[in-house]
Give the backbone structure.
Amino acid sequence: DAKTTQPNSMESNEEEPVHLPCNHSTISGTDYIHWYRQLPSQGPEYVIHGLTSNVNNRMASLAIAEDRKSSTLILHRATLRDAAVYYCILRDVRNSGGSNYKLTFGKGTLLTVNP
Amino acid sequence: NAGVTQTPKFRVLKTGQSMTLLCAQDMNHEYMYWYRQDPGMGLRLIHYSVGEGTTAKGEVPDGYNVSRLKKQNFLLGLESAAPSQTSVYFCASRQQGASTGELFFGEGSRLTVL
């Protein structure tokens, strides 16, 4: 399975943009890039996902490198509520084998937002 | 909307005791997962199920058993609890299909084994 690498922690100031990086140099052509976040004492929640093109939703933007070996989750204006652990994971959409079904989380990036 | 519900939310066990965690989802999802989360370790997949009556091992399956007798329920069992199984357990579910893949998580079950 392709792996992802994220920094252990990052810090930001409130109302400033935040760029959370993720490296996935062994990504395959059938891997979607997913981002989740986990607020303190809660279960993870979906943020955004993409395959090749950049994606935007109400929570964040996802910028995917042209070679797909890295991606960046962008929070346009960080708030205190955005303080969480952010996970970047890959999901293989091929129908063959169990890899299509397993979703493996790493340790993620702990984002601290300063007031 | 209930989503994914885990019971119990907290439990304290003695070493050697058994227990079952219940995960219920009301979204008619095909896939269900059990993860454990330990401090500084992220989430690790224990077992998962791709449909009623099917289960498969994840990264850390030893010491756990699962069953998916009904589509909406995924049970995680500890036959003989050990202190190493002290953790927060999360259940998740998602729809079948390639385009979405969004996982919906429960609020977690905190288990302490003395």
